[in-house]
User: Fold Na+/H+ antiporter subunit D from Streptosporangium jomthongense.
Amino acid sequence: MAQAVEGVARELVAVPVLLPLFAAGLKLAIGGRSRRLQALISVVTLTAVLVVSVLLLAAADGGGPLATHLGGWAAPVGIALVADRLSSLMLVVSSAVTLCVMVYSLAQAYADQEYAAPLAIFHPAYLIMVAGVSDAFLSGDLFNLFVAFEMLLSGSYVLLTFGGTESRIRAGATYVVIGLASSLLFLVGIAVSYGATGTVSMAQLAERFQMLPDYLKLLVELTLLLVFVVKAAIFPMSAWLPDSYPTAPAPATALFAGLLTKVGIYSVIRLEALLFPGGPVSVLLMWAALLTMLVGIFGAVAQTDIKRMLSFTLVSHIGYMVFGVGLSTAAGMSGAVFYVVHHITVQTSLFLVTGLIERRAGTTSLDDLGGLMRLAPVIAVLFFVPAMNLAGIPPMSGFLGKLNLVQAGIAAGGALPLILVAGGLVTSLLTLYAMSTAWSKAFWRAPAPGAADRPGTVLESEETTLTRAPGTEGITGREIVTSATMPAPMLGATTALVVLGLSYTVLAGPLSALTSRTAAELLAREPYISAVLGSAR
Assistant:
């Protein structure tokens, strides 16, 4: 019976990749002719991916990694997709997030009467990006990981520049250049890896890298690490992010912030745990973590726009994840995985709430906001809860994640881990300051002087027939119509993510136990290698 269940689960490993691709093709074929059918396809597809991801996590946690080989080619020739605890957990969280963001974007398009273009182009690109994210998490092949990155990046290029406004095209140009440069470097790393080992299978690379001369192994590790550092926006390769993400539509920005950088972090974890365990690069990663935390949060404190502030906090809190990876211990790796799960959910929910603020008030500039606590109390609560969670207020998951990393740093001993602990505490306090200041200015204080004279700023109206907000664009780049009444699905999707973030506190015990098992499996390496190669070793 157990073998039958495992066999069924193994057949499902490719579904999170193939199903969104099939749905994207179907939606492109349908075009903009049936809005309801388009919406139904998207929601059903992402719901199915979420269900399959939960099943894969249950199977991988109970019976070890599940591997399938595409095209019927046995390892190591065939392209392997592997669902272990780490990849399955990432799939579950990303699937929940992408489903909520999809509901949000559908509601926004409906409310703004943007029927044809978003459904005919925006959402197929969205599904392609989802397929790329799933493929990156599941990939057991270095070249297929490159293909996954290209897939998700091609979708993100469309989402970032959709509508063709000047700000989006300008930000998109930077994003595309950075993406293409890192992809070219990735190809170089793959070529060097293949030339040195004769394979691109990660399971085989894990064995063969250990037989290489130290200088060659370090060269390959640094090349691949640099690629993932750029993808994850780790300092000093993080300057592109705050200038790119805030210009995209609210759903796209939320998805980028929650997922795309985490794919880079996931790749760093897989690289350091599976391919190059215990290498000298861990010291470099710890310094990078410290600088990422501090530079990012100092940038956040200096911002006067909520979107840019959140973009800098995104960079800053990536440092916590790199902190855990750099420690190269089971406790550090467990803390990093816990924090990735927490941050995907919380950061996405904050950007969705920011979209609601922009829709309600016509701006995200803190200089122009004020009085929203009285006018939009639900939005005020929806922003406050994940903001405090991000800052690490006890007993929320942000606090628990930071506590795990602090304990791991102290247990590791040495000067550098303790410096990282101090940097993490400073970053947490400054995050609290930045988030509290933003909430106070936007919601608590009286409306900014002269706000009544600015078109699109809502002060007193409780009606839905309000003015357009200059300088703000919907999905297609059209100006958003500010409204005192939010579409229920937009509020519902945002609330669901906020509640999911809070649930990590309630489920902290089981989640911490799962991340501990995940870290142990990652550092053991043998379960992953055996699942992929089997009798081919």
